Amino acid sequence: MERTFSLALLFSFISASIFLKSAIAADTIASKQSLNDTETLISANEVFELGFFSPGNSKNKYLGMWYKRTPGKVVWVANRDNPITNTYGELVVSENGNFVLLNQSKSTIWSSNISSVAKSPVFLQLLDSGNLVLRDDTSLNYLWQSFDYPCDTLLPDMKISWDKDSGRERYLTSWTAPDDPSSGDSTYKIEHKELPQLVLFLGSAKRYRTGAWDGVRFTGLTAIPNSVIRPFAESDGHEWSYWFEQNKDEFFATVITVTQSSSVQRLVLKDEGSEWNVLYSIPNQPCNNYGNCGANGICRLSKIPTCECLQGFVPKSDKEWKAFTWTSGCVRRTLLECRGGDRFLHLLGVKLPDLLEFLVNKSMNLEECKAKCLSNYSCTACANSDIRNGGSGCVLWFGDFIDLREFIQEDNEQSIYIKLASSELGKDFFHLKSTLR
Ligand SMILES: *[C@@H]1O[C@H](CO)[C@@H](O)[C@H](O)[C@H]1NC(C)=O
Ligand SMILES: *[C@@H]1O[C@H](CO)[C@@H](O)[C@H](O)[C@H]1NC(C)=O
Ligand SMILES: *[C@@H]1O[C@H](CO)[C@@H](O)[C@H](O)[C@H]1NC(C)=O
Ligand SMILES: *[C@@H]1O[C@H](CO)[C@@H](O)[C@H](O)[C@H]1NC(C)=O
Ligand SMILES: *[C@@H]1O[C@H](CO)[C@@H](O)[C@H](O)[C@H]1NC(C)=O
């Protein structure tokens, strides 16, 4: 009883320490105005709040943003890698049009770093979307916006992106620890490929990937109920972007966040002021672990053991495979013949293998794609790059298949054609959802 009480007290204290701040009843501060570390900005419809905070036991001060009525989760931090280490912090919109964070002795600890000098008064405004923007009166474009600098959380309409010309990337980076928002080891980004996929990295190692975008969704991300969000991945010819729209009827808010334990979580707030719930957390099962079944293995949750060699392939090391060590993977039982002796094994409902050595040609159809693959000895598989309108475009794989998994869901239309020596196609030694072509 006493314990419950003290816990309750603790929680009310935590929220009180944020709520007791004197909110300046405004969403905007203008040039030469400032916000001290007990004041906060609140967006017009009171969705988001911006102010200084110190996470957990940390004595450092950070400028952060949270949903106003659910202040427990900070969704964005300005100076995550530049904390204010003394007791006092201040946000100022400077005369040259930047917004800067100052410590007690008025030293600049962090700056929005815009180089162009503003021609008219500049305003810093917190929008109801959770975008913190610097703007002036002369231009429709923002001089700076927090949506361009994601931290660990993707808000609706905020983008993860990769620009192939400039190399500029926007991606999520975990906090280092619960009381330290500095950039941690886990990142969630668009991979630099013609067919984008989202990849969760721990350091430089891939931990999970969504599978390539097939025009409708990421081929390995079937878990999201469409009632929660609508995902988008688009290219303007230079930049690939991923973002989502949320369904406002079902939830008050939903975000994607990358945790310190290197998982990607979809969080939802049922109602304004309720607690965050985890809708899913990935990787959550073996088939989501990158390359779980080794080269040319296929992961199937419905089977025990979950890893099997693809048809036409055998374990590289029988001994390891029998001990359920999959990392050594599988090799072809019969080498490809070329000279007209090869055929395709059609696998339906799979997360396409990782794009390591590959070619994409968006103007080829499936027949041209298969013919191209058959005519090149090094080509090992092919598929449509876009499944809309009956399928179009061509992806060719060269080399081993990494991170291939099968789905149980019947609605996954993505299929892949694996090249095998024709003598392998008669041997139907396991029951895969497959047809021979
Ligand atoms: C911060 O601003 C509030 C409201 O303007 C004021 O009451 C308070 O004294 C200020 N705090 C400090 C430390 O300057
Ligand atoms: C403010 O920051 C500057 C530069 O980092 C530092 O030299 C100074 O000691 C800090 N002031 C206080 C009061 O901590
Ligand atoms: C702003 O620019 C300075 C000097 O180039 C750099 O040291 C600092 O890290 C930059 N700050 C941010 C937030 O990018
Ligand atoms: C893509 O395929 C078409 C049709 O076969 C061909 O004309 C074109 O040259 C190919 N593009 C590239 C970049 O290979
Ligand atoms: C097969 O395709 C690869 C990758 O495009 C290419 O480098 C190679 O020259 C091709 N081989 C033949 C025989 O066309």
UniProtKB/TrEMBL annotation:
Keywords: Disulfide bond, Glycoprotein, Signal. It holds the Pfam family B_lectin. GO terms for biological process: recognition of pollen. Residues 1-25 form the signal peptide. CDD domains: B_lectin, PAN_AP_plant. Coiled coil: none annotated. Residues 338-421 form the Apple domain. Residues 26-147 form the Bulb-type lectin domain. SUPFAM superfamilies: alpha-D-mannose-specific plant lectins. InterPro entries: Bulb-type_lectin_dom (IPR001480), Bulb-type_lectin_dom_sf (IPR036426), Pan_app (IPR003609), S_locus_glycoprot_dom (IPR000858), SLSG/EP1 (IPR035446). Involved in sporophytic self-incompatibility system (the inability of flowering plants to achieve self-fertilization). This is S-locus glycoprotein. It comes from Ficus carica.
